[in-house]
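Appendix B. Raw example, untouched.
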Amino acid sequence: MPIQLEKATVTVLEGRRAGEAFPVLFNPTEYSHEISNNFQEVALPGLGNPILQFVNGESQQLSMELLFDTWTINRGQDVSDLTRRFSDMLAIDADLHAPPPVSFQWGSFEFTAVIPTLSQRFTMF
């Protein structure tokens, strides 16, 4: 049985746009998932090295690069119309008084988060 490729989607989970799902045009070629904890060194008299004390967990981060090519797929469509749907997820929702949480789902991988940063680069070649 051949493997079925699935499109990655980003879905708004709460707020005025709750339930809106945005499929990406092209699945990312890679993504980075970072998990970390915060420790503090505590120096005790008589010990040669400080001991480490757990302070707190840090928020997980998911990073990836998405490609939006409307020239190949939809000739003439302004690519910023598609990218704006994603950048609008950073806007403060009036009901939540904060940006809405979203879910990134790609096959069996699901990551729930808020989007803290979005960088866009527009290139015509």
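End of appendix B.
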